[in-house]
Amino acid sequence: MTEVQRTKMPEQNPKVRAKNFDEVALGYTLELAQKEAARCIQCKKPRCVTGCPVNVNIPDFIAKIAEGDIKAAYLSITDTNSLPAVCGRVCPQEEQCEQVCVLSIKGESVAIGRLERFAADSMMGKELPQEKIEKNGIKAAVIGAGPAGLTCAGDLAKMGYDVTIFEAFHKPGGVLMYGIPEFRLPKALVEKEISGLNELGVKFELNTIAGKTITIDEMFEEGFKSIFIGSGAGLPKFMNIPGESLNGVYSANEYLTRINLMQAYKEDSHTPIKRTKTAVVVGGGNVAMDAARCILRMGADTSLVYRRSLEEMPARNEEIHHAIEEDINFEMLTNPLEIVGENGWVTGIKCIRMQLGEKDASGRARPVPVEGSEFIIPTETVIMAIGTSPNPIISSSTDNLDINKWGIIVVDEETQATSIPGVYCGGDAATGAATVIKAMGAGKNAAKHMAEYMTKNRN
């Protein structure tokens, strides 16, 4: 008989982990993984596969874990997913494959993400059979070494294309390196998974800003037959309230980049970052959780301000749970009005209480201000985590590239094709800020259609 409850994942003690950047979730042992894998009932028509943006054969790899053949499980996953250790940690499985698991109807779904992580971690650094690739001599370019670009590049390389990735930062990985904290996604692990692309022959041009260092037109002139734009959504949004220019106000994007990519949390880091006793993070998504949990670990008594209730908060349940365990103070139904300060530095944030009114276009209850409920939260640091949009460098330097009113590149939903023949786009640059796995799905889809385009236009 299948167990109703899923196998618990070992974790660091909340009181201990709130003071370090070591990984929170410790992963399954073989015994725990096999116990969890045994819960899968191997549906004849598995809905979990259709819930996966990169179509991993989930029942197959879980069955292999149950049998103890971890190598076969890993190879099954990597047949369609080139970043399994990453996805096993940061994918919102509860909204995708696990959400449609049959077991979730009467209990808890199979812990698909945890099992994927186990298989990937178990095979990390081990030699695996390399499929011989026949090169076709055709050049393809990828802009951005984030999840969408890495996936697109990997798939094209496996098809025999000569792929070059142009990346603005000094390290590949995109949001995996600059956005997601070490305690959720260790950077050494990301680097190991990315190294697999080197083995496929993918070339990296780092410190290269597409649209500035090299334009899309110049890429075509250099002989690239098709180009994928996976430049993400790295332009932070602000609320445009008084005081946002005070010292001590960060966008979550800047703060997390300093902490993660530049490793400002380390005592010997050369990256400047202000260590404060108090902090307020504005927002309710995963980025807000990451920022709040990072600055908490930097020694700040941290509050999170969100204008709706806990039930409406879009962050993953696991991240909310971990933040609460770590004693982050949640100020729900609260909206900032002004950031206050003295001598150019933040001293507090003025907020107003909200109440939920009628539902808006998103189906969520609209927050309405409660008259006369203004109050000030004393703080030295404010981090704005209210979203991002695509950086306009590429769109402003590329003629005939269609964008919408939010600066998002317009694509054909079936093919990822842009308004320029041979140019494709996917991930946050085409959707606005979304998830790692959806970006990977877009990169995979684009690679398929880029190959078709290059086959038809070989000359």
Describe this structure in words.
By secondary structure, the chain is an alpha/beta fold. It has three domains: 14-123, Fumarate Reductase Iron-sulfur Protein, Chain B, domain 2, CATH 1.10.1060.10; 139-234 and 389-456, FAD/NAD(P)-binding domain, CATH 3.50.50.60; 238-386, FAD/NAD(P)-binding domain, CATH 3.50.50.60. The chain has 17 helices and 16 strands. Strands 3-2-1-4-16 form a five-stranded parallel sheet. Strand 11 (345-359) and strand 12 form a beta hairpin. Helix 4 (58-67) packs antiparallel against helix 5 and helix 6 (84-90) packs antiparallel against helix 7 (112-123). The longest helix has 21 residues, at 436-456. The radius of gyration is 23 Å and the shape is globular.
Brief synopsis:
The protein is an alpha/beta fold and 459 residues long. The protein is 32% helix and 17% strand.
Walk across the major sheet and give the strand order. 3-2-1-4-16
CATH architecture of the largest domain: 3-Layer(bba) Sandwich
Name of the top-level CATH class of the largest domain: Alpha Beta
Tell me, briefly, the overall form.
globular
Quote the average pLDDT: 94
The structural domain count equals 3
Strand fraction equals 15-25%
Largest sheet: 5 strands, parallel
CA radius of gyration: 23 Å
With helices defined by DSSP (H or I, 4 residues minimum), what is the helix count? 17
